User: What shape does this take?
Amino acid sequence: MSTGRTDRPLAGRVAVVTGGSRGAGRGIALELGAAGATVYVTGRSTRAEPATQYGRIQALSGLDRIPGSVDDTADELTALGGRGIAARCDHTDEAQVRALFERVQAEQGRLDLLVNNAWGGHEVFSGVFDAPFWERSMDEWDAMLDRGARNHLLASRAAAPLMIARGTGLIVTTTFWDRDRFLKGNLIYDLAKATMTRLAGAMAQDLKPHGVASVAVSPGWMRTEFVLAGHRTDEDHWRERPELAGTESPRYVGRAVVALATDPAVMARSGRVWRVGDLAAEYGFTDIDGRRIPPFELGEG
Assistant: This one.
């Protein structure tokens, strides 16, 4: 499962990956495609109508345009062996979210996997990574809680009945977690990610009697498009930047999601948060460069 996989363990399965234009969502969608799944790639960025909410991070990263779209990801995962379906959706809009899952049910008659990844935090990125909470803008609350954790709840509410009706399914929520350590200097981000982790665990309690699993998955420091741009490099040249030596590709978390989705005993993992590095060791997968990157850990102090 680490590289060069030729089997399609998720053939016939249907997934929705929210926030799939770039970053973790794109990496997850691509790996699901490589495993043969039909994947609805959702988000606000399309080729015809790119998202316009990322002006701050775009300027700080020196980008002429925001990379990625739901169309690009859908095409890429199709080329890898799956079936990608681009579906524009603003995940803050409950009516659009409901319509998305009604479409999935009408077109596929099933939903096996939901990956909650839509995230508004990049909309307010300021380049400041360490500041006391009284100096941080409350705009971060709106972006990270109202357009982050709430997005996950809305999608899960719409997806759960489809899975419950079949008595099986998996909801994966991407988060950040390092054994309950606080992320010093970014209280609202820390609070938002803790909320997502708690959400996944709480949903698991309600879903358990229905045979549906819910887990949170925590990647490490990913070489997303924004990280690469911020370091003035790209995926072909990142090794020239020593500070990026410990990073992982977004497809590493994708391989973790595939491992969970193909695990017949995944219910035993429901209700908990799992670090990608730990899952790699347990399931035996590697990143795209063959490395098995250990779990990301916060420094002391």
Remarks:
- The chain is about 40% helix and 10% strand.
- The two ends are 37 Å apart (CA to CA).
- The longest strand covers residues 212-218.
- The domain at 14-283 is CATH 3.40.50.720 (Rossmann fold).
